[in-house]
Amino acid sequence: MLIGASDGHGFRYEVIEWTDGYLVHARDVDTGVVEDAETKVFRTAAVALRYADMSAAFDRLAAARIAGEPTEAYEAELEGLKELYDGLSRRLGDDGMAAHVLIAWHEKSSAAERRRYH
């Protein structure tokens, strides 16, 4: 279930409730394709939402730099969101994990159980 999203320039960072926590993935605005390599899992929704906000701000800053636009406002926004994310992540002890690592761990665990019963 989608619980929140933050819009960057080229990507939308979606927070999705998952069995093991909250996924944050980047969806290309033009194509709708999800960038699996960028997916992270967090234990808490609050940290996942802050991470999505911070990622979207970084995306907007990168787009402004590429376009040659002034970046001071984007840099200030990113810095403020980074401080919020870092503080909340530290207080809640939730740094997140790459989703592919968690998925591989689950697959290995279920494979071990299958071998045990057959």
What does this structure look like?
The chain is an alpha+beta fold and 118 residues long. The chain has helices at residues 45-67, 72-92, 99-117, and strands spanning 2-7, 11-18, 21-28, 34-42, 97-98. It has a five-stranded antiparallel sheet. Helix 1 runs antiparallel to helix 2 (72-92).
Sum this structure up briefly.
The chain is of the alpha+beta class and 118 residues long. Helix content is 53%, strand content 28%. The protein has three helices and five strands; from the N terminus they run E-E-E-E-H-H-E-H.
What amount of the residues lies in strands? 25-35%
CA-based shape: globular
Helix count, per DSSP? 3
Strand order of the largest sheet: 1-2-3-4-5
Unreliable segments (pLDDT under 50, ≥5 consecutive)?
none
Helix fraction bin: 40-55%
SSE-based structural type: alpha+beta
Alpha carbon gap, first and last residue: 35 Å
**What is the number of E strands?**
5
Biggest sheet: strands, sense, closure? 5 strands, antiparallel
Q: If you compute it from the alpha carbons, what radius of gyration comes out, rounded to the nearest whole angstrom?
A: 17 Å
The ordered H/E elements are: EEEEHHEH
Layout of strands and helices, then pairs:
Layout: E1 2-7, E2 11-18, E3 21-28, E4 34-42, H1 45-67, H2 72-92, E5 97-98, H3 99-117
Antiparallel strand pairs: 1-2, 2-3, 3-4, 4-5
Essential attributes:
about 120 residues, five-stranded antiparallel beta sheet, alpha+beta
